Amino acid sequence: MTNSKKFALVTGAGRRFGLALAHALLDEGYQVLAHYNTSKDGIDELEQRGAIGLQANLANLNDVHQLIQAVQQHCQKLHLLVNNASCFFDNQRVDESDANLVAVLNVHTAAPYLLINKLQQQLTNAEGSVVNITDIYVDSPSTDYIAYCAAKAGLASLTQAFAKKLAPAVRVNAIQPGPILFLPEHDSQHRQKVLAETPLNLEGGLEPMIAAVRFLRDNPFITGESIKVDGGRALTI
Q: Keyword set for this entry (predicted)?
C-alpha cells in the first residue's frame, strides 16, 4: 500500500463521463481507482496510464462490499469519491423483471450509500470530497423513467444527509447533468427536440462536467450543494 499520491475512486469509469474524468484525474497526478462492470475497453486505456481497474456489479451488494474492501486495501486515504455509475432503464425495461428494478435502485442509491458509509474513514483521513452524479430529473421526474428518477432522487437525499453527517472532515456535493452527451441510439429527431428545449441550445460535452467536479472538489466552503450542468434544460422540463 502506498500513500504517496492522492487517491480517487470513480465508479462507472469505463465509458463516457467516468472515463473522461478518470483520464483528467490521471493528468492531475491522482492514483485513480477505476471501477467498472462490463465496459472494459476504457479501463484498459486507464490501466495503461497507471490506473487500477476494479470490477464490480453495483447491482449486487456483495460485489459492492468486495469493491469497498479492495479500495481499503489500496489506500488509507481517499481524497475523492465520484459516484457516477448508472443504469439508465426506462419503465419498460424495469417492468420486464424485478432484477432490473433492483439494479436501478442499487446502482444509484444503495451502492453509493455503502461506498460513502463504509469508506468514510478513508475519506476522513484525507479530508476528502464526495461528488454524486444525480440528474436534473430528480426535481421534475420523468413519467417514462419512474424508478430511475426515484433512485437518483434517493442519491440526492444521500448527498445532503451525508454532507451533514460527515462535516467538517468530508464535503459531499452533487452534480445534476442535462444533455451532456447524447447516446448512440438517440436519432437526429430526438437530439433536435432536446436541444430545442435547452436554453443554451447545445450538447454540453464532457468538459463542463469535469470542470464542475473540480469546482466542488476545490472549493473548501461548499457542502450539501447540487449544481445543475444542463445548459438550462431544467428550466423547461
A: Oxidoreductase
Go through the domains of the chain in sequence order and give each one's CATH number: 7-235 (3.40.50.720)
What nine digits make up the cell of 113?
Answer: 450509500
Hey, which residues are catalytic here? 148
Residues near 12 by beta carbon (within 8 Å), at least 6 away in sequence: 18, 35, 36, 37, 39, 84, 85, 86
Bridge partners of residue 34, in order along the sequence: 10, 53
Nearest C-alpha neighbor of 176 from the set 196, 197, 202, 149: 149
Is residue 208 scored above 80 in pLDDT?
yes
Mean pLDDT estimate for the chain: 95
| Three-class secondary structure of residue 151 per DSSP | helix
**DSSP secondary-structure letter at 108?**
I
Q: Do the beta carbons of residue 219 and residue 225 sit within 8 Å? A: no
Grade residue 191 by pLDDT with cuts at 50, 70 and 90.
Answer: confident
Q: For residue 3, what pLDDT is reported?
A: 54
Distance, in Å, from the CA atom of 33 to the CA atom of 208, rounded to the nearest integer, reads 22
Residue 168: strand, helix, or coil:
coil
Cβ–Cβ under 8 Å, residues 83 and 133: yes
How far is it, in rounded angstroms, from Cα 10 to Cα 32?
7
Residues 98 and 47: beta-carbon distance below 8 Å: no
The length of the chain is 237
Is the model's pTM score more than 0.90? yes
Helix axes 111-118, 61-74, angle to 10 degrees: 30
